[in-house]
Amino acid sequence: MNKGIKKTGTPSWEELKASPGLPDEDRLEKGPVAFIECVQEIPCNPCEEACPFNAIEVGTPITNLPKLNGEKCTGCGLCIAACPGLAIFRVHKNYTDSTSLVEFPFEYYPLPEEGETVNCVNREGKFITKGRVVRVRNPERFDSTPLITVEIPKEFYLEVRSMERKRCKGC
Question: Is the pLDDT of residue 171 over 80?
Answer without folding.
Answer: no
